Amino acid sequence: MTVTLAARTPSRNASLGELAALLQDEHHRKLDVVAPASTIRAEDGRLIIQGTAHELSPTGVTTRAGAFRPTGVCEAGIAEKLGIPVGYLRKVRTEAPELWDANVNGWLDRTDRSFMVRTLLPGDQGEGVARAMLSTGYRIIDNLDILTAALDGVRSAGVDVRIDSCDLSDKRMYVRIIADQVRAYAPKLLRNYRSPFTGDRGADNPVVFAGFEISNSETGCGAFTITPRLVFKVCNNGMTITRDAERNVHLGGRHDDGVVKWSNETVERVLQVVTSKTADAVRTFLRESYVQEQLHRIESTAGTPITNPEETITTVSKALRFNEDTRAALFNHFIAGGDVTAGGVLHAVTSVAQTLPDADEAHDLEAQGLRAMELAAAA
């Protein structure tokens, strides 16, 4: 039976030091190649790519084909690029592996396109990993460079911040930043709420901190993004203001076939943009007036009473396509929070997000908090 690997063990709620160590370890194993379809084959559930491995012999260095086990993200990319339904491809991987090879090879034989394949060379797992199959116009902005440039931007803006937590998955990196001294008070929004984790009452501690989240994908799963984020001190629930997010899409010029190498000048230009955007985000989002403006906008909807919590949570869950486990968790957190208003639905969404072990699911759920509140108020 073939298996789909993760490129790494997912990291949830890591420290900045732990995240940096993970990224440094990966940095030395990365190999990005633009390969014509004719140089890629599927064999035993792996991608075999010509010219990606090197051997030292008495006659010199020779190149040969390298073998890479695709991650779930890469497999989705293979399906999209070759026009194979991803559900079918994942089904045959586990139930009839020989059909996985046959389908991938069959469609590779029917195209003359080239693809960018992002890989990790063999490490402790003993085999290479194919992280993503992307278009040749994909612009590489790596997590380690993003992190370094973004922190430079924070420092240049001159605001004291702390790293709240960091997540790293095969899809994205997330870094959450808080400025404790930039705060506002939300007694109206928090007067009836209590933390489902500690039981502490929002009325006793109605402080809201300013912050933002930096996210990036190395594997085609999202743009480099800076999103403002408000954090409630009483429960550490985070609320992202997605409408104000700054995005920088990974699109560039077409790469030629072969191993991808960017010039230092090109990388520097990209990172200068990241540093500048981060500094701008600090100056824009880490202001007391910005926090107060967002809270005022939220409070106008949050106070709407919820007369039938179970029906409202079900309606919101259907509209936002939450699964049954998430719906049940939202209902439980809503009841535990004790705030029977649309704002209570917001708190339930953001508190459940904290409990999810999957970083991408947690991020996506938290981003739905304000929309869930609006739907609950309209239900």
From TrEMBL:
This is DUF932 domain-containing protein. It comes from Streptacidiphilus cavernicola. It comes from the Bacteria.
